[in-house]
Each structure stands twice: as structure tokens, then as C-alpha cells.
Amino acid sequence: KSAEDHERERRELLDRIGRLVDGTVIDVAELNPDEPNASQLLIYNYDVAGVQYEASQDVTHLRQFVDLHNCRIGVPTSVKYDPQNPGNSMVVSERWSGLHSGTPLRLGIDRMFTGERRQPPPSRQETVPRKQI
After folding, report:
1. Could you tell me whether strands 39-48 and 85-90 are parallel, antiparallel, or unpaired per DSSP bridges?
2. Distance between the two ends of the chain, CA-based, in angstroms?
3. Which DSSP symbol is given to 10?
4. Do the beta carbons of residue 21 and residue 48 sit within 8 Å?
5. SS3 for 114?
6. How much is the pTM?
7. Are 72 and 54 in contact (CB under 8 A)?
């Protein structure tokens, strides 16, 4: 199995058995930004039973679910962790996101590679037909 297969299985396990706890996003990093296989990391901390944990999650393969450009440092997040191994945790998966935002987390990391910003779709003004009297 590839490293990505193992990571996906880890996220699936945490989706099933994970417990929720409050945490904080403390950094966002990109490793090897000039290379085609650049990795994006979400770094966060959380407490379980009085023990503070600092962890990072490679979100490279979750680009369609998280936009690191909109992740603000210091913002509260929810963390799912393994109750048998609290150091095993995540902030986002294919089925769940602990990132608190007023908008859905969707594709946007591609700007890291292209530098392009997506244009919002043109707004449509809907006209309501007036009732004839």
C-alpha cells in the first residue's frame, strides 16, 4: 500500500471512532513549494485529559475539501482523535471538517500552484414577474 492509502485508512478510522475536542489552528505550511509534489500541512494543537498535543495533518490530497488560503492562524477548530491513542488526530477528512467557517470548504488550494484566483460566477438578477391588475 502507498503512503496515501495508509493515510486515507487512518482518516477513515478516525471518522468512525474519533472523539471530538476543541483545538486551534496554529500554522499552515507548504513543503517544497517549487516542486510538483509539494505538500500542504495544517498545524494545530489540542488538549486531551490535561495533555497538550501539537500535530500536523498533510492535506495535500484533500484539496477539494479545504482551502488553506482561508485558514486563519489562531482560529478555533474541532479535532477528531483516537481515544486509545490521543496523538492520532485529524482536522479534516473526506467526510468531515473541524475547520470553523461561515462558508463551505471547497477547492481553492490550486491557487498555490498557479497563482490564479478563481472568478466568482456572475450574479444573476432574478426578475419576479409582476402581477397584472
Report:
1. unpaired
2. 71
3. H
4. yes
5. helix
6. 0.71
7. no
